[in-house]
Amino acid sequence: MKRHCCWLICVAALALRASAQVSVEAALDQEQYLPGEAMEVAVKISNRSGEKLQFSRTSEWLTVRIEGDGGYMAEASSELPDGADFSLDSPRMATKRLNVEPYFHLTKPGRHKLSVRLRLPGYEQPILSPVKNFDIVTGTKLWEQEFGLPDTGHPPKVRSYMLQQANYLKHLELYLRITDPREQLPLHVVRLGRMVSFGQPTALLDRRNDLHIIFQNGARSWRYCVLTPEGNFSLRQTHAMSENRPRLVVDEQGAISIKGGLRAKSADDLPPEPEPDFLAPPPATTNHVAPPPP
Q1: How many whole angstroms separate alpha carbon 202 and alpha carbon 280?
Q2: Which of 129, 124, 128, 131 shows the shortest CA–CA distance to 59?
Q3: CATH number of the structural domain spanning residue 236
Q4: What is this structure's pTM?
Q5: Which of 22, 116, 163, 195 is the most exposed place for a label (fewest CB within 10 A)?
Q6: Structural domain boundaries enclosing 147
């Protein structure tokens, strides 16, 4: 009996030592989210156990836990997004990223707490991460337009573009929300960027039902974006004030463009501006000076 107890104590001590030398941390790139907005969690695992850790994609080695105001809790177990096994040598650290929003569909405004639980292969005691706080906030609707998706039958599937603003860290952010009007479920939520409180965005749909948006994001600057019905950026530019402010115009063929202002290059332009090729040979020139006429 004593030998059996000693064996159990040794196993527990080894498991405790191994778990103490492996740590896990969850990080978020934002402090608040709109309902339906993608929530990417960076799970950082540090292995100082002296052993190689092997995680199987079928072992539910990672569990995400979210607790909201009022005590309600929801849990989701996630396999690796790439569907592959995962190993971590010692001493090494690795970061795995996953979007947890589809697992929880967080719609209730308020403060939430996120943590992750890591299960080590061969050990029953899981490792818990420190709690990460975040807020779910509701935005204010500024504009909304229903439209039909092309090539989706007769009648076509209907979607809705909605522009919302929300306070974020003492400034305003503009969001695009794409929903199914029949179900009011957010299909895509896209953060467009910071906006000023004294300017209202302008939005127009082109012939393909892509959404063109221009909004003021500074004292003399505007952001121009074009997004597809799937919520993907096809264009993102910055424009500045000149003799007049930039604005959206529609020509006789229905094409939408910017008139007024000046284009200002930005690091997050889409598509990005090509880098200058400093190794390219200079254009052919001549320094020959013609002789004066006789």
Answers
A1: 41
A2: 124
A3: 2.130.10.10
A4: 0.77
A5: 22
A6: 140-264
